[in-house]
Design a protein that fits this description.
289 residues, alpha+beta, Alpha-D-Glucose-1,6-Bisphosphate, Chain A, domain 4, seven-stranded antiparallel sheet, five-stranded antiparallel sheet
């Protein structure tokens, strides 16, 4: 059984999100990150055919402003699609793949397809965020990326205070900060070379980070974003994005990423758990909401 989930809170109403999402697969499509590989030749309607690379399937459900679902046959019994849920200050956009793999897909999904699918969906959500809210990520086309999230039963103010108190971003270059909403930091280096030196070469700020293109290096961003969900709950997301400056650096980073990714993901989950514990009442001023 496969249940693959990607979520993003964007600063727009569900109807505004739908205006952009509803053009998926058409000539007006501004979201799909791989041009020419996803098309709805007969338009967006229930039962309409879908051309997705070599796959052919159909639109299952169209509920404007709420849900878009595709039924997938063949090696995957189930479907995938989007749901839009109002959230405080915006819309929670959720993409899910749900179903059972059959035949060769039982091997292809975990070994090949899942990684590519994750990259495409995250790039699509980046494009959606940019289109409707105007705040794209600092590295919009990462070669390597990792994303984790947790819903916390506390206000955004309290979660932000908890995050600031734990000082996870010390030692990095501050690239963007929107108090109560987002903090993004960065570094550059050749981390695959022992000993790994954090932020070497030294970058003074966002301009240095953007301009750095010296071959043989990698640049990475590490961010926390807060998304109020209403009812006193907040979605806290941490994301790591990495690009490289040359083919040789990409190959080295790919090998390094394969080794460190499981441990890196575990550390990120520990970080989110630490923020959650702090936000739920340990070590914060009692006057916070």
């Amino acid at each position: 059984m496969v249940h693959n989930v990607h979520e993003r809170v964007v600063s727009a109403t569900p109807d505004q999100v739908w205006d952009v999402l509803g053009a998926l697969g058409s000539e007006r499509d501004r979201l799909w990150p791989l041009p020419g590989t996803f098309a709805l030749p007969e338009g967006l309607a229930e039962g309409a055919p879908v051309r997705h690379g070599p796959m052919r399937y159909r639109v299952g459900v169209v509920e404007p402003g709420s849900r878009l679902w595709f039924d997938t046959p063949g090696g995957f019994s189930g479907g995938h699609g989007f749901t839009l849920t109002p959230a405080e200050g915006g819309t929670l956009v959720r993409h899910e793949v749900k179903g059972r793999t059959l035949g060769a897909m039982r091997l292809l999904w975990p070994l090949v397809i899942r990684r590519r699918h994750n990259a495409v969906v995250e790039a699509l959500l980046d494009n959606l965020d940019r289109e409707v809210s105007g705040t794209p990520p600092i590295l919009p086309d990462p070669e390597f990326a990792e994303r984790h999230a947790v819903a916390i039963e506390a206000s955004a103010d309290r979660v932000w205070a908890a995050l600031a108190s734990l000082r996870f971003t010390r030692g990095f270059v501050l690239l963007r900060e929107r108090p109560g909403h987002e903090v993004t930091v960065g570094l550059a280096g050749r981390w695959w070379r022992p000993p790994a030196k954090v932020n070497e070469p030294r970058l003074a700020g966002p301009a240095d980070f953007a301009a750095f293109t010296r071959p043989g290096y990698a640049k990475g961003t590490f961010s926390f974003t807060l998304h109020p969900l209403g009812g006193g709950r907040t979605l806290l997301v941490t994301e790591t994005r990495v690009v490289t400056t040359s083919p040789a650096a990409h190959r080295a980073m790919r090998r390094y990423w394969r080794v460190i990714r499981p441990g890196s993901g575990l550390i990120r989950r520990f970080m989110l758990a630490a923020v959650r514990r702090r936000a739920l009442g340990k070590g914060l001023a009692p006057g916070l909401p």
